[in-house]
Specification:
Blueprint lengths: L2 H14 L2 H4 L5 H15 L6 E5 L5 H8 L3 E6 L2 H12 L8 E4 L12 E6 L2 H4 L3 H14 E13 L2 H9 L5 H13 L1 E2 L12 E4 L1 H10 L3 E7 L10 H6 L1 H14 L3 H4 L4 E7 L1
């Protein structure tokens, strides 16, 4: 399947889902906290120019703008761009530099014009490797020398862990989806159940690193975003207890680079330098 064939299905999925609120619920709160922690670990101080390509409803983009960064958001889903513009308007003292419908493989920005690029969705929604490499090379084009790239991938094994922990492993409709995920990394939801996500490619951690290298980046880190923390029993209770939340975050940090744990994370983050 060519990614342009997948795009209508991806847009349909996100038009029906509420991406603007997702990161405020359940274990996705861990995803948000860890993603932002990993961004701040390497990001130069403001003001710096950041392109958030595939930035969704603007959760991370608006957070960075509020910290004094110049942030430009691009997303393929018109609903997301409208949500990002609304979120930007709601923080009028620190608005986004721009929020536009666009393609992460063809950025409307000049060569060497950005200090940082975020690819927190395109690397799994571009289902063909050549398109992922085109996306990475485009990020490299717009980055200044020494500029930084954050790219998120979904683990090859995320569906297996999610189905076991969430109780749908025995759904016969999901069995064929899981089989293809594990065999090819090509995720296709052949049902009408939105819980089973939309068209995507699921990486092995080493594949994400090799893609960065193939696009000309120096790889600074390959780390688990959630680690095994997303599988925590009674996650909300732990997260809502400040002490237990900090224990959970500390435990995830301790194993974030452990090779035997990387694939158990729902998402893996690669951080590269031009």
């Amino acid at each position: 399947m060519h990614p342009d064939d997948a795009l209508p299905e991806i847009i349909r999925h996100y038009s029906e889902a509420d991406e603007a609120s997702r990161l405020r619920t359940g274990w996705f709160q861990l995803e948000q906290a860890r993603t932002q922690e990993l961004i701040l670990r390497h990001l130069p101080p403001p003001p710096a120019t950041i392109i958030d390509a595939g930035g969704g409803a603007g959760v991370h983009a608006c957070w960075l703008a509020a910290r004094g960064y110049r942030v430009h958001l691009i997303d393929a889903v018109p609903k997301h761009v409208e949500q990002a513009r609304t979120a930007s308007a709601n923080q009028a003292e620190h608005p986004l530099g721009s929020a536009e419908v666009g393609d992460a493989r063809c950025l409307n920005h000049a060569d060497s014009s950005a200090d940082a690029v975020l690819l927190l969705g395109p690397l799994y929604h571009l289902v063909e490797r050549e398109d992922r490499l085109a996306c990475l090379r485009e990020a490299r084009r717009v980055l200044r020398p020494g500029g930084l790239l954050w790219g998120a991938g979904i683990s090859r094994f995320a569906s297996l862990f999610d189905s076991l922990s969430s109780g749908f492993f025995d759904d016969p409709e999901f069995a064929s989806i899981l089989d293809r995920d594990l065999q090819e990394g090509q995720h296709r939801n052949t049902t009408d159940n939105p819980i089973y996500f939309t068209d995507a490619f699921f990486h092995r951690p080493g594949e994400l690193s090799r893609d960065f290298l193939a696009a000309g980046f120096q790889v600074l880190e390959i780390v688990a975003i959630e680690g095994p923390g997303w599988l925590a029993r009674d996650f909300d209770r732990l997260w809502n207890d400040v002490t237990q939340r900090e224990r959970l975050l500390a435990a995830v940090r301790k194993v974030e680079r452990e090779p035997s744990v990387l694939g158990a994370s729902s998402h893996v983050m690669a951080i590269g330098k031009k």
